Amino acid sequence: MSKADLLIRAGAIHTLVPGQPPQRALAVRGDRIAAVSPDRNGLDAWASGDTVVIDRPDATVLPAFDDTHTHLMIAANSAHDVPVHTARDLPELLELIRERAQRTPPGQWIRTTANWQEINLPERRFPTARELDSATDKHPVLVMRGGHNIVVNSAALELAGITAQTPVPAGGHIGRDADGTLNGWLQDNAIPLVARLLPEATLTQRIDGFRTATQDYAAKGIGTVRDAMVPVSDLPVLRAALAADALRVRVRVMASALGLRTVDAVDDLLDRLEEWRYLPGPWLRVWGVKFGLDGGIEAGATREPYACDHGFHGYLTWEPKVLTEAMDHVLRRGWRIGTHAYGDRAVEQLLDIYAELQARHPGLPAGALVMEHGGLADAQLRTRAVELGIPVTIQQPLLHDIARIEDTYWGPERVNRLFPARGWLDAGALVTGGSDYPVGAYGAMRSVWGMVTRETVTGVRGPEHAITAAEAIALHTTNAVALLGESDVRGLLTPGRLADLTLWDVDPTVATPDRLHGLNPTHTVLGGRVVHGRP
C-alpha cells in the first residue's frame, strides 16, 4: 500500500460529492488526495514515519474556499500602508497619517489601506484635502477607499497638475466644494490622474506584500482567489512571488482593462497579455480580461434616479457599441471576459452586449462571458441571464459593509434587493461567492454567515434573499471551480483531485449563524501542504 505524505483524521469530512455521507479519514500523496475512508482509522496503514498526521476527532473538513471576486493585488500592495481601516473616526484616521509622516522622509508618498467605509465613521464622509494637509503638508498623500475612490491632499493635487480648470474625464469625477474649490476626492476614471505618479515599490517589497496578504487569505479559509483587477505589468511580480514561494493561495488573474476606452487600447492589452497565456502548474493562471461597464457604489448605472439626486442615474464607463467591439476582439483571441455591472441599467446593457457577442460567436464555451456583481438584477434580468447562460459572481461581504452608504445613494428598498442569492439559485444560475475586498472583508465564513443571515452594518437587509449554509458553501467551492473551469481538479474531496481543504472546530454545514460569525479554520491545506495552522 502506498504511503501518505499527509493523513487527516476528523469527525466529519464533507467531500461535497452528492449523496456521499461524511468521511472520517483522508490521505494525501504529493499534491493530490489519494484516498478517503468512512472509518477514522481506515487509512492508518498509509502512515509512515514521514507522514504528517492531523488528528482532530472533533474537527470538520471542507474543501478550501474560492473567493471568485476579490482584489489580492490591492491587499498585497497595501500590506505595509497606513492602516486607516482601524480608525474609529476621522481624527484617528488623520493621526495615523500624521504618525506615518513623522517617520517618512519629506517628499515621499504616503498611501493608506483601502478597506474602510467613510459612512461607517461618525462623520460619515471622506477627509478633505485640507484636513489631509493638516496631517502633513510635506508629503503627497493618497487615501484609498475601495477600488473606485481616492482622496488626496494638496501636495498630490499639485504634483498631478489638477486644478479647478482640469476637465473631468469621461466616466470619472473630480470632487469640488460648493464654491468650486477642489476637495481632493477623485473617482473612477479620474483616479489615474494621480495614481500614475505613485512610485513603484521594489520587487522585494512587493513579494513580501504578497506573502503577507496571501497568508491572511489562507488563515480565513480561502485557497484560491480570482483577482478582478490585475494590470498586465504586474504579472511578472506575481510570477516572482510564486518563484519565491510567497503565495499561500492559488491565483486566477483577471487582466484589467479598466480605464481603457478604445478598441486599439484593448488590442494593445491583448498583445501584452499573449505571453501569459500558458503558465505552468496550478498555482498561477490568467483567467481572462476584466471590463467595467458602470461605476461603483456611488455611480452604478440605474434605471431609476438616485435617492440623493433625482437627476442622477449613475453612469456607464464605456459607450456600449465600442465596448462590444472591444470584447469581440478579446473573444477572437480566445480569452474569457468578466464585466463589472452593478446597477440594473448596467446589467440590462451588459446582457444586450453579451447577447450580441454570442450571436457573433455561436460556439463560445460555457463561462466565456461572466457578469461581475449584478447588484440590482431583478427577476426578469436574472431569467434573461440564465437563458443566455451567463454566470454571475456576487459579494455578500460588500453588501454588509456598504449598506449604510448605499441607503444614501439608492434608498433602503433598492439596498434590500442587492445580491439576491436566493433568486439567482432559484432561477438556475451558476452563481458564485466572493468578497470584493477591499470594499468587503474577505473570509470563507464571513461570506457564508452573510448569505445565511443577510446581516449588514444596518441590520438584516432583504431576508427573503438568504440561502442555506450548504448552498453558500457550494457558491465558494463546487460552483466556484465550475466558473473557473477546474471542476475536474478541485472542489470535491475525492481521490485524484488537488488536496485543497480546510479544517474547522465546528461543522459549518449545521452550525447556528452566531457560531459562523467570526469563524476561521484551524488549518488550511493547499496541494497537500499546510499553509495555515500547525499539524
User: DSSP strand (E) fraction?
Assistant: 15-25%
- Low-confidence parts, pLDDT < 50 over ≥5 residues? none
Q: Could you tell me how far the N terminus lies from the C terminus, measured between alpha carbons in angstroms?
A: 23 Å
Strand order of the largest sheet: 5-11-12-13-14-15-16-17
Gross geometry: globular
Report the C-alpha radius of gyration, rounded.
23 Å
What does this structure look like?
- It is built from 18 helices and 22 strands.
- It has a domain at 1-63 and 492-535: Urease, subunit C, domain 1, CATH 2.30.40.
- The protein has helices at 72-77, 90-102, 129-135, 154-160, 192-195, 203-219, 235-243, 263-273, 320-332, 344-360, 379-388, 396-410, 412-416, 421-427, 444-453, 469-476, 478-484, 513-516; strands at residues 6-13, 23-29, 32-37, 52-63, 65-70, 110-111, 141-145, 149-152, 172-176, 182-188, 222-230, 250-256, 284-292, 336-341, 369-373, 392-394, 431-433, 455-456, 459-460, 501-504, 523-526, 529-532.
- Helix 6 crosses helix 7 (235-243), helix 8 (263-273) runs parallel beside helix 9 and helix 9 (320-332) crosses helix 10 (344-360).
- With 535 residues, it is α/β, with parallel strands linked by helices.
- Helices cover 32% and strands 22% of the residues.
